[in-house]
Amino acid sequence: MARLKLGVLISGRGSNMAALIGATAEPGFPAEIVLVIANRADAGGLETAREAGIATAVIDHKAFSGREPFEAAMDAALEAAGVELVCLAGFMRLLTAGFVERRVGRMINIHPSLLPAFKGLHVQRQALAAGVRIAGCTVHFVTPDMDSGPILVQAAVPVLPGDDEDSLAARILKAEHRCYPHAVRLIAEGRVRLEGDLARIDASSDSTEMLISPLSGE
Ligand code: GRF
Prior knowledge:
Layout: E1 4-10, H1 15-24, E2 31-38, H2 45-51, E3 56-58, H3 67-80, E4 85-88, H4 97-101, E5 107-111, H5 123-130, E6 134-141, E7 151-158, H6 165-188, E8 192-195, E9 198-201, E10 211-212
Parallel strand pairs: 1-2, 1-4, 2-3, 4-5, 7-10
Antiparallel strand pairs: 5-6, 6-7, 8-9
The structure holds 5-O-phosphono-beta-D-ribofuranosylamine (GRF).
C-alpha cells in the first residue's frame, strides 16, 4: 500500500521530527517523510533530517514581506514534494487562517499539555503554577484558533514533587515521542474521521489506544 507522504515543519531541535523519522524507518509503517521545512537555517533538526537522507528546505520567514508570501513559498514546496499530511513539530510561527483552511484534516500539531488546558507558550510553567498532578501532551488537528483543533492522541505523565519546568518538559517530551508517530499511524491507516470539532477514531481493535497513560508502557 502507498505510504502517506508527510511534510514536517520545524523551527528548532526537531526531536519530535526525529521520533517520526524513527517510526517511518520501521518496516510496515504506513507513512514516510518526503520533506522537512525549517523557517530558520540554524534549526538543529535540519542536520538530523539530512543525515537520515530526507529532503530539507529552509524557508526563512524573514526573507518575505509578510505571512502570506512566506506561506505561499511553503505551499509551493509542500505541493512540489507531494505532501499529503503536514506535521507541525515545534514550528514557532503563527499560521494564517488561509494556510490552515487549505489543509483541513491534513495538518496536525503536537503540544506539550493536555489540551484544552494550558495553551500557548510556557505550558510547563502554567501546569506547575496550576498545581496539576497530571500533565501530558496532545496531538491535534490544526484549526485557525491556536492549540484548539480536534484531539487525536493524548499522553499523561505525572507531575512529581520537586519538578521544575525542565524536568517536567523532559518527561512530557518522552511521551510526545510516542504520541506523534501513533497519531500519524492512525491517520495513515484511515482510521480517523473528522466530525465537527471532534476526531473520531476507529479503535475497534483496542479502545484505549488514543490514550497513553502513565501506567501503560515505560
Ligand atoms: C515540543 O515540546 C512540542 O510539543 C512543542 O514544541 C516542542 C518542540 O520540540 N510544540 P522538538 O523541536 O520537537 O524537540
